[in-house]
Amino acid sequence: MGRYSCKRKEFDFGSFTITIREILASISIIAVMLVIGVLISGKISEHQADQNEIYNKAVKIENDKELFQYSMDTNIGNAFVYGDLEAVDTVTYPEIDGEYMYVKKVKEKYTEHTRKVEHTKTVNGKKVTYYTTETYWEWDYVSSDDMKCKNIRFCGVDFDSGKIDVPSYAKYIDTVKETSRIRYKYYGTDTKFTGTIFADLRNGTISNAKFYNNTDIDKTIDCLQINGGEILFWFFWIILICVCVFGFYELDNKWLE
User: Fold this and answer.
1) What are the φ/ψ torsions at residue 165 (nearest 5 degrees)?
2) How confident is the prediction along the chain (257 residues), in pLDDT tens digits per residue?
3) Closest CA to 65 of 181, 196, 156, 171
4) Calpha distance 229→146 (Å, rounded)
């Protein structure tokens, strides 16, 4: 706890002191930074409101091919569309079973490695550290290759696969050994998903489309809406104010005398 000296008009905290004038100056610093914080917070709030308005005003289409196509043809603009996403032309590798929307092949090599191992022993009553070299084997990544379907169908309408982010969270399929030291691991995605896209519908097609798997329109909107930005900003801004004030106290502020 700091001690106040009436004669010198300062608080003594041992390692540093704070004068009355420094306290008054720091109040001005806090006031200025609070005003700046209010302005920045207002901009953040504005941006959140504008972004959320885009989502709230977007057209909502529930698994309706005719309405989906009509919306693209009439340049409806931003829209949430819920439906099935499926591969028109599936892909695979000949050495594995099944068909996939996206498939990945990873080559690995069984490689010998060495590492230093630390040991201790007692010599003449003292602990001595020494190292030995240990050999071990593990599968190392060499290279990878992948394929995805060229065309997809969403809500009954066909598109180039580049129009929508094809889900690439591939699950493990199989491991095929070429030799005792070379193997290939395969990963792939299903050929059909159900979910929501948020996209710009115009000129008979879609653009800027992102697919949200296993998510209906309402949940997608909740996921995209921006909230809490102001709270997060003020949390860090208050920390910054405290750092600035304490940094000011640490300075040699003789100019205030």
Assistant:
1) -65, 105
2) 555 444 445 555 555 566 777 777 778 888 888 888 888 887 887 777 777 788 888 999 998 999 999 999 999 999 999 999 999 999 999 999 999 999 999 999 999 999 999 988 888 888 888 899 999 999 999 999 999 999 999 999 999 988 988 776 789 999 999 999 999 999 999 999 999 999 999 999 998 888 999 999 999 988 887 666 677 888 888 898 888 888 776 666 555 55
3) 156
4) 38
Tokens 């959140």 belong to 48
Q: In angstroms, rounded to a whole number, what is the distance separating the alpha carbons of residues 251 and 245?
A: 10
Q: What is the domain partition of the chain in residue ranges?
A: 3-54+230-256, 58-226
CA dihedral 45, 48, 52, 54 (to 10 degrees): 110
Residue 170 is given by DSSP the state P
Element (H, E) at 237: helix 229-250
**Two tokens, residue 149:** 């379907």
Residue in the block written with tokens 């998510």: 215
- Using the CB atoms, write b or e for 16-44: b if 16+ within 10 Å: eebbeebeebbeeeeeebeeebeeebeee
CB 77 within 8 A of CB 105: no
Helices (H) and strands (E) in the chain, counts: 4, 13
